[in-house]
């Protein structure tokens, strides 16, 4: 890599279905907010494009019209031959706190007349329109042309497909490199990829059908993103290795092994301003790693908030996030009651998800009112108090591409107990009392007994306050800043450009 290229300021466009603060459903929205901002801080021109949904208030964000009546080809045999869209634009006023420059693809029928972001029968059309509309906008309005476009997950997997086929000879678009980020390989299309008939199987090499074609909804857009992008990355180094195995590869492991030369993993970061115990306005008492004694006030506030007995010796266990099978919550069925009966434990659960787990924790709360408390719905604020006051957080995931919960908890001094998989393996080092290393407690087998042993290990070490405080300090000092991750992304983008320019 030449010195000039390594120092060149890059123009990077992120295409996604969500981006905070405009619209956020899951972790993707946080990433598309934080990573471009970190790249901007490093001196690069990072921008974002998402659909203009009904919920996005133009007056609040002061959007202006960037391009009117953009004609996006449909390839339909009959009318309409084009769909008409507008491009709106948001410009930041304060670069230290505002999102980066963001474009919005506006279309009444497919975005603005919808109450939700996901879950429509015509989602295949909606996301194909986003991909092709983005490319048409760049082609017809070349005031700002990115060096690289970053797509995220199956919804935007067709963008690289369009670049390498439909637009391969376009004088502007043919010069743009493509990066495909896999946030979760499990979700690949509108259908369950494990139950596809031979007739409907998409090998990824056929042409992209017209927007009106029923075939469009049978495309495996995750597969196509992997096939056509210049480089592929996942949200942790360990997950990049795991998805090349049959166990974690979701039927795409053969393809991923074929493309392993351009596959890598970069661990996601967290917002250090938001998760800062010294300035956090969502907690009872601010503190830092040198004044962990001040954290006790948050512990009491947490017990009061959840109407649990004020007990300084209780071992406060937390579960925060989506309550789904992926998170390994079925491992609790055979161990939690035993632990609650045998140890001085208080369990706090915050989150919503699948009915069986919601019912399980609700029933547990009813049975152990002095030991279990729940808040079974999504909450943005409550996790701050939980991580400021709890002792540990449980993450026994079946698979975990990256995971942010463990990083957020560590930043606030709550120790993670995790299964050694995906990004959990990259972000949590197992505690070793002999050489005083580690930032949490890990176990490998997806097994209730292995989880119980890890929990008991944590409890036994919790009783030695001196060693526990040293463990907390190490966890709080771990570097999960987006700046650290963004530097690795810059190298990835430069590699994508080099690979693209070879062909």
Q: What sort of overall outline do the alpha carbons produce when their principal axes are compared?
A: globular
Would you tell me the structural class of the helices and strands?
Answer: alpha/beta
CATH superfamily annotation of the largest domain: Glycogen Phosphorylase B
- Biggest sheet: strands side by side, in what order? 3-4-5-2-1-6-7-8-9
Integer-rounded radius of gyration: 24 Å
Number of helices: 18
- What is the share of helical residues? 25-40%
* Mean pLDDT across residues: 95
- State the CATH topology of the largest domain: Rossmann fold
Count of DSSP strands: 15
Query: How many domains comprise the coordinates?
Result: 2
Oligomer: single chain
Description:
The structure is a single chain. Helix 5 packs across helix 6 (158-164) and helix 6 packs across helix 7. Strand 1, helix 2 (27-41) and strand 2 (45-51) form a beta-alpha-beta unit. The model is unreliable at 1-6 (pLDDT under 50). The chain is globular, with a radius of gyration of 24 Å. The longest helix has 21 residues, at 482-502. It is built from 18 helices and 15 strands. 35% of the residues lie in helices and 16% in strands. With 503 residues, the chain is an alpha/beta fold. A nine-stranded mixed β-sheet has the order 3-4-5-2-1-6-7-8-9, sandwiched between helices. A six-stranded parallel β-sheet has the order 12-11-10-13-14-15, with helices on both faces.
């Amino acid at each position: 890599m030449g010195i000039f290229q390594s120092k060149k300021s890059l123009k990077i466009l992120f295409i996604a279905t969500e981006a905070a603060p405009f619209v956020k459903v899951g972790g993707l929205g946080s990433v598309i907010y934080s990573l471009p901002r970190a790249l901007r801080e490093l001196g690069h021109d990072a921008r974002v494009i998402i659909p203009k949904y009904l919920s996005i208030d133009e007056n609040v964000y002061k959007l202006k019209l960037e391009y009117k009546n953009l004609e996006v080809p449909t390839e339909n045999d009959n009318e309409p031959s084009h769909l008409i869209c507008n491009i709106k634009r948001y410009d930041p006023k304060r670069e230290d706190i505002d999102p980066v420059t963001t474009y919005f693809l506006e279309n009444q029928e497919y975005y603005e007349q919808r109450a939700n972001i996901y879950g429509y029968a015509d989602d295949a059309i909606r996301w194909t329109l986003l991909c092709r509309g983005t490319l048409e906008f760049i082609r017809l309005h070349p005031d700002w042309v990115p060096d690289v476009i970053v797509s995220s997950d199956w919804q935007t997997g067709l963008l690289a497909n369009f670049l390498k086929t439909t637009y391969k000879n376009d004088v502007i678009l043919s010069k743009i490199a493509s990066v495909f980020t896999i946030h979760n390989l499990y979700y690949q299309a509108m259908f369950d990829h494990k139950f596809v008939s031979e007739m409907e199987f998409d090998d990824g090499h056929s042409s992209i059908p017209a927007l009106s074609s029923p075939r469009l909804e049978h495309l495996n857009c995750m597969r196509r993103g992997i096939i056509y992008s210049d480089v592929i990355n996942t949200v942790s180094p360990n997950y990049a290795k795991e998805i090349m195995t049959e166990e974690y590869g979701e039927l795409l492991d053969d393809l991923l092994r074929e493309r392993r030369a351009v596959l890598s993993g970069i661990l996601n970061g967290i917002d250090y301003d938001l998760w800062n115990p010294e300035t956090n306005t969502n907690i009872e008492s601010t503190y830092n790693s040198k004044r962990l004694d001040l954290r006790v006030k948050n512990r009491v506030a947490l017990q009061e908030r959840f109407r649990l007995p004020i007990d300084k010796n209780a071992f406060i266990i937390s579960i925060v996030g989506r309550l789904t099978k992926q998170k390994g919550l079925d491992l609790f069925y055979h161990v939690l009651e035993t632990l609650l009966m045998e140890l001085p434990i208080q369990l706090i659960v915050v989150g919503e998800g699948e009915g069986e787990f919601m019912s399980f924790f609700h029933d547990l709360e009813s049975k152990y009112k002095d030991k279990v408390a729940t808040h079974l719905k999504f909450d943005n604020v409550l996790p701050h108090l939980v991580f400021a006051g709890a002792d540990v957080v449980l993450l026994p995931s079946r698979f975990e591409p990256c995971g942010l919960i463990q990083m957020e908890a560590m930043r606030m001094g709550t120790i993670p107990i995790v299964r050694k998989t995906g990004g959990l393996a990259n972000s949590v080092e197992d505690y070793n009392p002999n050489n005083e290393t580690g930032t949490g407690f890990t176990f490998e087998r997806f097994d209730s007994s292995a989880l119980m042993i890890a929990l008991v290990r944590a409890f036994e070490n919790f009783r030695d306050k001196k060693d526990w405080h040293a463990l907390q300090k190490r966890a709080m000092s771990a570097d999960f800043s987006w700046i650290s991750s963004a530097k690795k992304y810059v190298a990835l983008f430069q590699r994508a450009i080099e690979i693209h320019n070879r062909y």
